[in-house]
Amino acid sequence: MSRWRDVKAGKNKNTTEKKQSSTFDNKEISASIPARVKAFIVDMFMIMMPLAYITTYVLMDGKEDFQASQEARWAISLIFGAITIIFWVAKGQTPGQKAYEVKLIDQKTRKKISFLKALVRYFIFLISAVTIILSFIPFFRKDKKTVQDILTNTIVVDEKNI
């Protein structure tokens, strides 16, 4: 038990430990799901749509050829992934994440993630998107982490909370 003067002056050992633990509590600093979804939609329009347009009308003979080609759609997904990974490694956020002030960081170090971790995270995202059911996991977790966040030990946070 601390002395009254220590408690009044804010020198209580227990309160400083609580303040430090709440600073690093994932559910308090995690970005909201709507902000993350909006950031993803912005990224789709800023990165994916130009890739799809160039592929469909410049590299291929039009919409019908693009729709018939599974390879073209997977190639666009992989190019989109490469661009996203470059943004995550270089800046810690994609243009959409920058617009909504969210950032992807390593959960332990609180810094930008490595290339390998970003690559693994994107491939887990692809699997999550294909299975659809894995996309709903953040709605059932208090810390709002996705499957790719859980498996790669990353977290998407609000920039103002870092």
TrEMBL record:
Q: Which Pfam families match?
A: RDD (PF06271)
Where do the RDD domain residues begin and end? 31-153
Q: What is its main location?
A: membrane
Q: Does the keyword Transport apply?
A: no
Q: Which residues cross the membrane?
A: 40-60, 72-90, 119-140
Keywords of this protein's UniProt record, alphabetized?
Cell membrane, Membrane, Transmembrane, Transmembrane helix
Cellular localisation: Cell membrane
Q: Where is this region: Disordered?
A: 1-22
Report the membrane topology from the UniProt record.
Answer: Multi-pass membrane protein
Q: Which domain of life is it from?
A: Bacteria
Gene Ontology CC entries for this record? plasma membrane
PANTHER family hit by this protein: PROLINE-RICH ANTIGEN HOMOLOG-RELATED
State what protein this is by name. Answer: RDD domain-containing protein
The lineage is: Bacteria, Pseudomonadati, Campylobacterota, Epsilonproteobacteria, Campylobacterales
